[in-house]
Amino acid sequence: MREPILSLRGISKSYGPVQVLKNVDLDIHAGEVVALLGENGAGKSTLSGIIAGSRTPSEGSMTWIGAPYTPASPREAIDKGLVLIHQELKLLPELSIAENVFIGRWPMKNGVVDRHEMVRRAEEQLKRLNLHIPATRKVAGLSTANQQLIEIAKALALNAKLLILDEPTAALGGAETEALFEQVRKLRAEGVGIIYISHRMEEIRQITDRIVVLRDGERVCEFADSATPVRTIVESMVGRSLERMFPALPEPKDKVVLEVENLTGANNAFRKVSFKVNAGEILGIAGLVGAGRTELVRAIAGADAIAEGRVLLDGKPLLAKGPAGAIAEGIVMVPEDRKLQGLVVAHEIGENLIYANLDKLGSRWLTPGAKRKFAKAAIQKFGVKGKAEQPASDLSGGNQQKVVIAKWLARNPRVVVLDEPTRGIDVGARAGIYDIIVGLAREGVAVIVVSSDLEEVLGVSNRILVLAQGNQAGILSREEANDVSVMELATI
To answer: What angle, 0 to 180 degrees and rounded to 10, lies between the N-to-C axes of helices 427-442 and 397-409?
Structure first.
């Protein structure tokens, strides 16, 4: 047996009385891609942080290329060739792409930054990922997908011997994902070891050699064959039998709640889109990255301006301007980036729930008791695993998403828009989100779900609106919709 480049033995980590990792062993060899799977809160991020030098283990030991490895900081890990690419983007928007790629390690010439060389080397990495954007351009204004690829280019420029990819495709479409996979395969052929963290089971089967599963901080299973049935892998993650992922959908009612007529965005990201959503109906919106999905629902929710067309609620034109006006009329939106747009993560869970409902609580001054009562009710109703006084930053991605959903549903809205509702959320927690979405439809709410996960949009939708390059390519019934029919329209 060849020696691993990275070896972990008995790694444990505690925060006070809470033990988040328990005696974990892990080996990573040169030139292999190992999937690290587990539900949110299973310990994946903590283990990754320990390897990458941002956290220190409470117990256990590590070796790197045969020598003891105890990184005191991420910089020390990077200098040794171990790089973690975080799920959350960490780019500086006012700097250029090249400056972001080489920040802190500028190429120098005669004592000054060699900008020509910096741009050349940055564009070399961008081309490896099929990202054809000038490296001199500022990051500000770039799509989330392009920013994710820049984060990856930044790591590739380090010539790492071990890469940890944490949800690298969460913001990527099909073409960008395949470009990433191609690069991963090249790196594997070059002898780079890769730890791949993802909740997308199909891509795990495509790109990884081996699967390691964590549950409640412990290593519970390893699958030597990435072709292991998805159900088997998922059941090892959640520790129970998973009978069905998507709940049965109710029949929509005859009453039209939301109607969109010839809607065109002010920035022309979408054009002349028309559809209706009935009470108790879930309309999925599908399309490739850049198709205009997010821009469309932001316009409906009042967050973006409209150039032409109109939105009707219960047959009456929506005249209110801005998100506050739409919310007052009964249209709420759960945004795709829950940390930047959905929560004040440093504040308490209870405070986040109350911020969106101050006008509904009936008093200018809220007593601590009233705040606790309101927050406790919302937390219990939606199964949030946390207490009202905890900061939202303490929660897993799935529980953060439940808080965002809970704060809006407390308003009893007529229309709920969810943009990428399960992005970065594990398979077990997804089932809980799907139950909430379908539960809304059963209560007669009109629901719109935007998702880049085709299986998801097929699983939760009564009908699917497909966008292609900003144009409405078609609307498919549940009977007509499948992965082939949706993609045919999305690529028109």
So the answer is: 10
Q: Do domains 6-238 and 256-490 have the same CATH topology?
A: yes
Examine the pLDDT at 286 and tell me if it is beyond 80. yes
321-332: pLDDT as tens digits: 889 999 999 999
DSSP string, 345-409: TTSBHHHHHHHTTGGGTT-SS--HHHHHHHHHHHHHHTT-SS-TTSBGGGS-HHHHHHHHHHHHH
Question: Pick from 182, 144, 145, 149: which is nearest to 135 by CA?
Answer: 149
Domain segments of the chain as ranges: 6-238, 256-490
Sheet holding 6-15, edge to edge: 18-28, 6-15, 59-64, 67-68
Q: Are strands 59-64 and 67-68 parallel, antiparallel or unpaired?
A: antiparallel
Q: Which of 426, 424, 420 is nearest to 457 (CA)?
A: 420
Q: For residues 171 and 148, what is the distance between their CA atoms, to the nearest angstrom?
A: 7
Nearest CA to 84 out of 182, 7, 166, 4 is that of 166
Q: How many CB atoms lie within 10 A of CB 152?
A: 24
Straight-line distance from the first to the last Cα atom of the chain, in angstroms, rounded to the nearest whole number: 50
At 102-151, the pLDDT tens digits run 988 888 998 999 999 999 999 998 888 778 899 999 999 887 778 878 88
> 479 vs 229, 247, 455, 464, CA distance in Å?
26, 17, 14, 10
For 293, how many CA atoms within 13 A lie in the half-sphere containing its CB? 30
Give per-residue pLDDT as tens, 385-395.
Answer: 788 888 888 88
Report the DSSP pairing between strands 210-215 and 463-468: unpaired
User: What average pLDDT does this structure show over 414-431?
Assistant: 84
- The SS3 assignment for 418 reads strand
Fold observed for domain 256-490 = Rossmann fold (3.40.50)
User: Which architecture, in CATH terms, is 6-238?
Assistant: 3-Layer(aba) Sandwich (3.40)
User: Closest Cα to residue 279, out of 300, 253, 301?
Assistant: 253
Nearest Cα residue to 307 out of 296, 291, 323: 296
| φ/ψ (deg, to 5) at 370 | -65, -40
pTM (2 decimals)?
0.62
What residue type is assigned to position 401 of the chain? Q
Q: What are phi and psi of 178, to 5 degrees?
A: -65, -35
